[in-house]
Input
Amino acid sequence: MGTAHLQIDLGALAANWRALDAASGAECETAAVVKADAYGLGIAPVARTLQAAGARTFFLAVAEEGAAARAALGPEARIMVFSGHMAGDAAAIRAHALVPMLNSLEQMTRHFRELPGHPFGVQLDSGMNRLGVEPAEWQAVREMVVARRPALVMSHLACADEPGDPANGRQLASFLDMTAGLDVPLSLGATGGILMGRDYHFDMTRPGIGLYGGLPFAAARPVAHLHAPVIQVRHVEPGEIVGYGGTWTARRPTRVATLSAGYADGIIRAMGNAARLWHGDTPCPLVGRVSMDLLTADVSGVEGVPDTLEVLGAHNRIDDIAEAAGTIGYEILTSLGARYHRDHI
Ligand SMILES: *Cc1c(COP(=O)(O)O)cnc(C)c1O
Output
């Protein structure tokens, strides 16, 4: 088989949700963020697995993701949309029974005019300055909006991957201030917020990356396992180069494996000469640049010719690969290409 094999471990996914649910506390609902095709791992199998594990509320980025999510989850699940009610969204919101998180007065006006009585939530900006109603605007419309019974009032933390960052406390104080006296379900924390403890949980937490095996949930089980097949192995003598641009030169006799996977498959080019692949417990450093369809790795430490090497899995967490590429685990997952042979196990 020519293509690399991507296995999605649905058992690990469910275990990660249960662990974050336990960490969220008994009074708090644990939702699941499945935007961007469930962080690139496949909305239908991922959403169904999380639903079977106990999740009842799911978050998407945009209404266009609603059809696939509703088809996977059936009529009972609650599906909420972070980007809110954008122009042209009314038909999709109605057809798939989505709950938009209204982010601005413009979105509120649109929603109450186009879909009066249709469930909605509100996203507040508590300091990240990305999405959400600003404190002064909220003050002006709060009473009118709350009278229409929002399903959820939420905000999002900018620095939750750094628990010691003072921005977290400032955002918490701002959120508490904006929601004081409200009798409406509240939500502030995603994966990082869950790990920061009860003050950040409110009535609902919204984990994403931790479900999929990424930091800041260090105890997560890896979910994505990627193995690339070896096409050939060659001996390279000291002084010989490997790959485009000759960016790697052998200093000793080296066995170099060429594998079928490249930047067209989401193996980020910047990890050339930096990441390690694995054969069992043996590290096999990438040597030379990542090509569109090929990788080259030093397999001198491996006896014989390996069939495949691990690109992601037990030895290579998404954050290990991300560090080598100068990025984050989120981008590693959402970059995973369409060409893999995919299996959900
Ligand atoms: C993506 C997202 C989440 C999930 O965040 P993770 O860090 O992946 O847990 C939660 N809330 C909002 C608003 C988001 O955009």
